[in-house]
């Protein structure tokens, strides 16, 4: 009887342990894909608690895609656009621009929607260097300044022999500036725009977009 009593106790304990419900692992992040032109893209994770997350990739974004149901995300662009993606969806960004921050919430959550934050730093501007100025056909290069939104900019030198030079900075460009006379430059955008700058001139790029290459010649 004593042996049967111990067996009964052990059986009862084992039954109670295995009958206990298993903890369910909850998903607390969502993967968002940011799509640019010419198949350029990147993916970033966002928590679903509504917290705002900075986006450091400066690629000019045309579409934002989510493959997760039950989540709503809002993203802020460098030109202060606001793009909301709900559930499984791909949403256009208009006009295309760098995204600076975003936040996501599970449907029914209490997260807050991000608003453009003036304190959020834009990509650090690069001071233009002193351009090489052709004089009577002399000089071998010219420095061109590419300007984006929120004072973001960078400068790059181009040879004056007409050679096409790749532009690797993906910043979305609104204006192209030359401070050198007697030169003529042509730049190609990622969305197939063509922008020509002649002499001392600032030319608008429309619509704003990443520049992929350029060539300059002495006028």
Automatic annotation (TrEMBL):
It comes from the Eukaryota. Keywords: Signal. Residues 90-141 are annotated as: Disordered. Residues 115-128 have a biased composition (Pro residues). Residues 1-19 form the signal peptide. This is GPI anchored cell wall protein. The lineage of its organism: Eukaryota, Fungi, Dikarya, Ascomycota, Pezizomycotina.
